[in-house]
Specification:
By secondary structure, this protein is of the alpha+beta class. The chain contains 4 helices and 5 strands, in the order ααβαββαββ. 11% of the residues are buried.
Length: 154
């Protein structure tokens, strides 16, 4: 999606910075830190993200990031939010969106913990994959069965 956006809008020299599987609640992510190092070196003119929560979900750090990008004269485009700091339009609601993004992450975390706790207390499995030595039952995916040793083949 982002590559299509970049191509349609004349951006070239695309470089990807990713942090798959790491929460945006922390800014100590390898991909983000590598991108910020390139910003400081003056090697990045525009950052394009799906939405700003992909950069981070801590409203204080997002404010500092916005200021860092502004000082470095780096344009930030959040495609799904319609944010483009190069358009000359200043969205006064960005800090409020950052607060909402942070609290959304906290809310989801509480809900996930609550779900796992309820499943565990009711005797259900909380892992998606069975532990070593077990398989999911073919008839009931919520039941684990012992993975019986197979006889040696000659």
């Amino acid at each position: 999606m982002l590559e299509d956006y970049a191509e349609k809008n004349g951006f070239t020299g695309i470089r990807h910075f990713t942090d798959d599987g790491i929460s945006g609640t922390t800014f100590e992510r390898e991909g983000l830190q590598a991108m910020l190092a390139e910003v400081e070196k003056g090697n990045i003119g525009t950052i394009i993200v799906k939405d700003r929560s992909r950069l981070g979900r801590n409203y204080v750090q997002m404010g500092m990031l916005r200021e860092q990008l502004r000082r470095a004269n780096v344009r930030l485009i959040a495609v799904n939010e319609g944010v483009d700091t190069g358009s000359g339009f200043d969205d006064d609601f960005l800090p409020f969106r950052d607060v909402i993004n942070e609290y959304y992450a906290k809310d989801i975390s509480k809900k996930i913990k609550s779900t796992f706790k309820a499943k565990g207390e009711s005797g259900k499995h909380v892992a998606s994959s069975p532990p070593y030595g077990y398989l999911k039952d073919r008839e009931d995916k919520n039941k684990w069965v012992i993975d019986e040793p197979r006889p040696p083949q000659n």
